[in-house]
Predict the 3D structure of the following.
Amino acid sequence: MTRDTFIKITSIAVAGFGILPQISFMALQENFTREQLIGKGNPDITGDSYTSTMHIEVKAAFQKMKDAAAKEGINIEIVSAYRSFQRQKEIFEEKYRRFTGEGLTPIQAIEKIIEYSTIPGTSRHHWGTDIDIIDANAPRPESVLQAKHFHGDGPFCKLKDWLNENANSFGFFEVYTHNANRKGFKYEPWHFSYAPVSKPMLQAYKKLDLKQILLEEKIMGAEHFSDEFISKYRTENILDINPKLL
């Protein structure tokens, strides 16, 4: 091989590596199946419990973040990670039955549910990219996932301060931020998403026909999901999130 030929081949290879991340990102968007995106099966998910099951890349990144936090006396504990379609359906329908049984109309019940809980098939936890976390070294309140525990003199303030400073460097971003102008789900200081995987998954998810999926899956109350409701839910609950995750 001549020197000129070697230089030419090397230049092509370097250029290829330069565009590889973009190609991979684009390919990733095209390769997610409907089942992966709505929580009904994902070959990239690993784990054996609801607190340890997540996307394989997310698990590796989380361990690095956990190890770094441990050096500061913080023991990051996952209280919820991957959630299947079926599990989310059970949560949603249990609340739907309870609220309508208490006298709320179906629409009122649905509106109450989606203050914090997602409609099955629409949860970010379906992707294995999102985690709900607390500090296991702190005193454990009876109900851990409340915003007040992460502020003021709450037990998870040290964790929250550390996450504000360091989580992004590990690829994790708070999803439902404390922003008065943000709509949709209420503020969740415990909910973080691994952007390198969740961003392309969201782009693929946006291409799905959400209303058709909800009707096909026979979710309780789905007959009340009007076009107007679906449009509002998509805009506010699915897309009105931390801009760094879009």
